[in-house]
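Lab notebook page, bench 4
Experiment: in silico fold of construct C2
Operator: M.H.
Input chain length: 1192 residues
Purpose: comparison with the prior construct
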Amino acid sequence: MALSDTDNGCSGGGEGESIVKLCVLGGFSESSETRALISSLPEIHGDMVTSESASERFLEIMNGYQEQPHLLDPHLEWMLNMILEFVRSEKSPPSLVHLSFKFLYIICKVRGYKIFMQLLPHEVADVQPVLDLLSRQDPKDTETWETRYMLLLWLSMTCLIPFDLYRLDGHLESDGGKPREPTMDRILAIAKSYLLVGDSPRDAASVLVSKFMTRPDVKQKRLGDFLDWSLTTISQTNDQSLRDIVMLDGALQSLAKLFKHGKRDDLLQYAPTIMQCLAQKHLSESSQAMLRKHGVKLTQRLGLTFLKPRLAAWRYQRGNRSLAANLSVSLSTSVATPEVETQELEEDYDIPEEVETVIEYLLNGLKDKETIVRWSAAKGIGRVTGRLPKELADEVVGSVLDCFSFQETDNAWHGGCLALAELGRRGLLLPSRLTDVVPLIVKSLTYEEKRGACSVGSNVRDAACYVSWSFARAYEPKDLEPYVTQISSALLITAVFDRNVNCRRAASAAFQENVGRQGTFPHGIDIVTAADYFAVGNLNNCYLSINVYIASFPEYTKAMIDHLIAMKINHWDGVIRELATKALHNLTPQAPEYMATTVLPQLLPMAVGIDLHGRHGAILACAEITHALYKLGLQTNRAVVDIISSECVDALKNIHQMLNDRKQYRGFGGELMRPSMCCLIEKLSLSKMPFKNDPVIAGWQWLIDDTVKSLHLLSSGVKDSVVVAVVSALSALCEEYYQAEPGRADSQMQDVLVSHYIEGLKSPQMLTRCGSALALGCLPRFMIHSKLKQILEGLLQMCTVSQKEGRFTEARRDAIRALAQVCVTVGVCAHGSPDSALCSENVAEVYGVLLNSMNDYTTDSRGDVGAWVREAAMTSLMDVTMLVASNAPEILLPDLVKCMMCCLAQQSAEKIDRYRVVAGNIFLLILHSKEPAVPHIPHREELLSIFPFETTTSLNWNAPSQAFQYITQLLGLPQYQYHTLLGLTVSVGGITESTVHFSSQSLFEYLRGIQENRAALTQFGDTLLSIFRDNLCNDKVSIPFLKMLNQMLANSCFEIFTTQENHQFCVDLLTLCKEFKKSNNISKLRVCVSVFCGLIQFQGDVRKNVLSQLLILLCHSFPVIRKATAGQMYEMLLTYDDVIDPEVLDDVMTLLSDTNWESDLQTLRTHRNQLCDWLRVSRPRVVTKQRPVQVS
């Protein structure tokens, strides 16, 4: 196998080169493995598992050659001979024969039966064995259908022997005296019987009929009878029952193949009768697509039978059909057409009446709802038209062109395109007809019909590309030259702007074919290089990059712009509408005058039209084009109002009022109108439209405020995009229209806006809080000046109160983001006013909220939603820290930096990959930052040795296998130990297998390194106990903590403490674990039992207390806990054999294993007390709960 790497550079769009691997096979490389598989068939046929495995492997090998099956040709003969040896051997059991035929079928399927069947042996000696083997098959056996399929194909080949079949019969009397059936009748009976089966052998039977019935001896004796049988089968069945559908399918398929391979003279006499039978059957109205397809195939074959087999003299001939031949012919050499060819042909003869019926049937087939039927009808039209006189053929072409009416469905357009491609390919579409055909093909290339919430027509556009491709090969350049502009523009528009990737690639291939074959397409080579098969695969790349390059050639600029305006900005898909408007923005520099004087006036009426999608796209397009014209004006020192007319400026200003008057901001339409108008507000503000102090500004502000207030009424899928549009619009609007003078805000608007959005932070609607927070975050500096204290108080209060309540998680996230944005906007001044900048007076307050948000672990039905707040807090901390460190590092207190780095270390050790990545990268960025350098980082030198600079790019925090081996090294740094271990707790005690494995592996590796260091291990134990104490009531930490502790005890991580009786660590640990005994959480109780069993390894009173706790749990009120405790105690006593007296060990083990610990408590307490006596532990006392006395 040869792999060729093709570098495909995508120009523009910020995309680098992408490497595309083309899989091109150089030959059949698995021949040795294939030979081994085939040779192993006698050994494996009896074992279902191995035979199935071998079949699957053989199928996998063969399927690799589906695209290039000709590579198998040199190897087909030896494969066939090896397999047929097993088939022909009398010693081969049936299972081996069936498996051999299965292998043969796999080869046949990949190479194609027409090629493969020619290799099957077809000597006279093969007829009877094949016939006998086929007779012994069970047509109803679903496991062996491949055997029957291949035998029928083999029999088809043996039928080609050039001897009369009666010579094979010999004496027709068998040994018993009963007459033996002639070979001819046997074959015919088998063919008929298999035409009526419901599986694939039916297809092979139709091939058998086509070969067998065309033999001279058979057609003389049996052809009429077989046709009578077929017509009877057709007339007596319907398409209502499955059995009748199968019979009808077999009969039609066999007749179609028979008329394809048979001689016209033999079949012509039967054709009218069959035609009449088909007409009465009304197959075109059947609900079964395969029956309609076979009806079309049979009808076209009948039509070809009615017409004399001749080559139309009038057909268009290009000369050499091969590209290589065309290139090799000298330009001075003219191709002379011998007159002898043209003379023999144009003889007038009567066209049978049935041909008209055939053509009408095929034309109706072009409009069928199934592609397979339309494709067959198109090929039929091409074949039949090739035998008609010129005048009649032209009428057929005219009828095909009638399919391209807008009253017809997309099926008719698709069928018409396929028919035109066939006619063009066969030279039956004369150049004189191109005047009518090319405009229809251009329309087809952009055909799209809306159906409900989507559209149809991608198949039409794909077929139109095929027509363009076929025309490139069919016509001389001089014949297509008048239509080059139309075809090239339409193909490029489809290649760049079509929504369907298959259509884009088909148009690219058709354009490339025209460039190569015709050589007349403007800038063909340059465009083919930029818009090749792979480049057009990315829709964004097409709309934002490739189209700009193509539009740089003036021949295509206006055509592309016009298509976007006419077809794409009103498209049903919102993504296409938005991409189209961005494309118009990028195309504006190519034709600024055309955009300003033609396109913009054309869009403005659409922006207030009745079509919702058109209105949405037109408003966005107006915004993008106006902004693009403004940016062009900057280069020539012209204002945008000097580029576009005053009428357009007024129309842009009036769009909002017209939409508001019509109440088009409401309901479903409002979900599109609000963000599109916000985009218009943003772009017009950025374009410095002269609307200052105009009433329209108040209208725009009302729209922004109303949208923030009503976000909760929008659909969930559009909320995020609407918020982004609103925030961008507000920022641009403030920047342009709310400055009393440069750098100073309009005080009235400043008071109104800030007060309004701070009030919005207290709204009962979460999305209103989100929008208000982000609105405050996007305000420009002059709007925040003197209002910073008020804004920070509002944001801080909302974060603190909502976190305590556990509500409004998304609002907290956005408030944290807004907090950082406000700080970055106002900047830092160490001794500045707290109402105007981040300074020493308010920095601690800001950091306090951000650090507090790092511990937000709110959960709801969606899971750990607090992670959104933590992520926002981490990125905000990074932004604020970089800002402060660069401008006023003296206000960055050591405690703040320490808390920040510890919190980042904790998040870097936690279990969720995404947030671990964010925390880890920010941790390294702050650590390695030099300009500015962040001061007061604890253990900076040790951290730099653990995380050298290379880790900023090489360390993949997303991979647990890499991240945890670094993060666990922080456990050796005292100031980071608590937070790092707290983060590792939820990872080691988690449920994700890879995270648990690598985090615990790294943790135990660290613990093994300090086993000999009693001081370090004691400090680690104290930290562990601190975490346990602080999170006793927090199940999100306590349960993972117990799981981690269980693993530590199982791995003997505290073995140094076991030598000392009643070590304080063990005593404290046991005391804390006892707290969980009263819990009702089963998962917590289960892991608590495991921890108690692990604590048994410690000496002294700890061991007695542990046994006491376990014995109490043996009579827990939950049966599942009793059973789990008994099982784990059994394992514990096996592991630690020094726990109890060996004399009673067997009795204890027997009692633990044999007792049903899920039975009633009264019985179990007796057994438990017995265990207490054996283990020398005082019996627990039963405490009866006193019920409250009821006063009557």
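Observations: The first strand starts at residue 2 and ends at 9. The two ends are 94 Å apart (CA to CA).
Next step: discuss at group meeting.
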